[in-house]
Amino acid sequence: MTKQQYASEAEALAPSLRRIAMSIVHHEYDAQDAVQQALLSVWERRDRVDETRLRPYLTRAVINACRDIQRARMRVVPMEEMPESGYTPEDSLLADAVDSLPENLRLPLLLCYMEGYKQTEIARALGLTLPQVTSRLFRARRLLRERLGEEERK
């Protein structure tokens, strides 16, 4: 894969990778750092990456970079909490419900419905089997229905 091919693929996938990272770390700058780290690490190993599987490979690299950032953040005690500025979706009830899902259910849901990944790509990116992905999507949708149903009744 040439530098130009990788750059164009990375540029096309960057918004999706940023949204995935944001859903994990919940901080804009950490999400940008995770994407940059992932893009750099995949570029360094480009000779071992199958071009047809670049999308799930980059997704897995972003998830791993996010986990590294979270581990590093756990070792640091912030002096004060900075207010988070950024985009707030119009349907904040849905966004709150999705954010409240456990990560093992939230990631497949976001990859499927927000990023348009196929279930096989999700399985590859998350290191799961296809039945596990299907099950997690089912459980995530059911939990969302329950949580949103409770909110409507209030």
In summary, what is this structure?
With 154 residues, this protein is an all-alpha fold.
Mean pLDDT: 84
Shape: globular
Estimated share of beta-strand residues: under 5%
SS-based structural class? mainly alpha
Helix content: over 70%
Radius of gyration: 17 Å
How many helices does DSSP assign? Answer: 7
Describe the largest sheet.
none
CA distance, first residue to last residue: 54 Å
Q: How many β-strand stretches?
A: 0
Feature tags:
154 residues; 7 helices; single chain
What topology does this entry show?
Layout: H1 3-25, H2 28-44, H3 54-74, H4 92-99, H5 103-114, H6 119-126, H7 130-153
Would you mind describing this structure in some detail?
The structure is a single chain. The chain is an all-alpha fold and 154 residues long. The protein starts with a helix and ends with a helix. The protein has helices spanning 3-25, 28-44, 54-74, 92-99, 103-114, 119-126, 130-153. The protein is built from 7 helices and no strands. The radius of gyration is 17 Å and the shape is globular.
